[in-house]
Amino acid sequence: MPVGSLRISELAELAEVPVSTLRYYERIGLLPSPERSLNGYRIYDDSAIEYLAFIGRAKRMGVPLGQVSELIELWSTGGCRPLQERIRSFLADKITEVRSQRLELAEFEGQLEGLLGRLDNSVSSPGLCDLDCACVHLDDDEEAVSTCYRFPTVSRGEVSCTLEDDDQAERIDQWRTLISHGQVEAAGHGLRVSFDRSAEIAERAARLGVEEVGCCSFFTFRIEISALAVVLHVDAPDLSEARALCEVVFGPIPEMERR
């Protein structure tokens, strides 16, 4: 049915595509440039409807826009056989691609099910995860431990934490959240953390320090406040395990910063 002359908004409504899409198709050469009215408006004829219908069918087949122009060129020349041959070739390639993706997805599904099974079968206890914990160590070809990392114990009875696992993990998270705002460096058997001067930081560090010595009396804390910074000093026992004790609670201590 003849449509006559259409402005771009009328064509967009008729074809059920945004005006921006029509302009884009025109810009990349999928839609022929329309004529212009005396006042500069784009004017489209019936052929624009046919072009848009062809583009829509090609997209539904999964043809990328970069290849649609090739099909349009074959279609517009009136050569049915070349167009059919090109579509046949594209569909064959697309089927091969889909089959390959299906095999890859099936393999990936199997890997995910295996990893899920490892989590379901792991015997874990509340604690702090590290890179060898089964909670986060999910590489299928590498061995992972089945329990979370717990606060290390040493031979001396005075070095122990009295918190339960869940409370211990929460306390560690509080410390690491605080320390993430500062600069950490090793100092003696402990560490030193420098923050920008802040009353809130000083208050949080003092509160956590008081709470920490209530369960881990082997740590001692000192806060130094100057005009430029708040510095938290943490001292650990004079043990070979001192760094491990500190890093479990406060996080990694950069090797290059150690003094």
List the helices and strands and how they pair.
Elements: H1 8-15, H2 19-27, E1 35-36, E2 42-43, H3 46-60, H4 65-76, H5 80-121, H6 165-179, E3 183-187, E4 190-196, H7 199-215, E5 220-225, E6 229-235, H8 242-250
Antiparallel strand pairs: 1-2, 3-4, 4-6, 5-6
Helix pairs in contact: 3-4, 6-7
Question: How many separate domains make up the residues?
Answer: 3
Share in helix:
40-55%
- Give the strand order of the largest sheet, numbering strands 1, 2, ... along the chain: 3-4-6-5
Largest sheet: 4 strands, antiparallel
Q: What structural class is derived from the secondary structure elements?
A: alpha+beta
What is the β-strand count? Answer: 6
Shape: elongated
Determine the number of helices (DSSP H or I, runs of at least 4 residues): 8
Proportion of residues in β-strands: 5-15%
Distance between the termini: 87 Å
Please, what is the oligomeric state? single chain
Report the C-alpha radius of gyration, rounded. Answer: 34 Å
Spans of 5+ residues with little confidence (pLDDT < 50)?
none
What is the overall pLDDT average? 80
SSE ordering: HHEEHHHHEEHEEH
Describe the 3D structure.
By secondary structure, this protein is an alpha+beta fold. It has three domains: 8-78, Orthogonal Bundle (Multidrug-efflux Transporter Regulator, Chain: A, Domain 2); 124-151, no CATH class; 165-257. Helix content is 49%, strand content 11%. It has eight helices and six strands; from the N terminus they run ααββααααββαββα. The chain has helices at 8-15, 19-27, 46-60, 65-76, 80-121, 165-179, 199-215, 242-250; strands at 35-36, 42-43, 183-187, 190-196, 220-225, 229-235. It has a four-stranded antiparallel sheet with strand order 3-4-6-5. Strands 1-2 form a two-stranded antiparallel sheet. A hairpin with a 2-residue loop joins strand 3 (183-187) and strand 4 (190-196). Helix 3 packs across helix 4 (65-76) and helix 6 (165-179) packs antiparallel against helix 7 (199-215). The longest helix is centred in the middle third of the chain and has 42 residues, at 80-121. The radius of gyration is 34 Å and the shape is elongated.
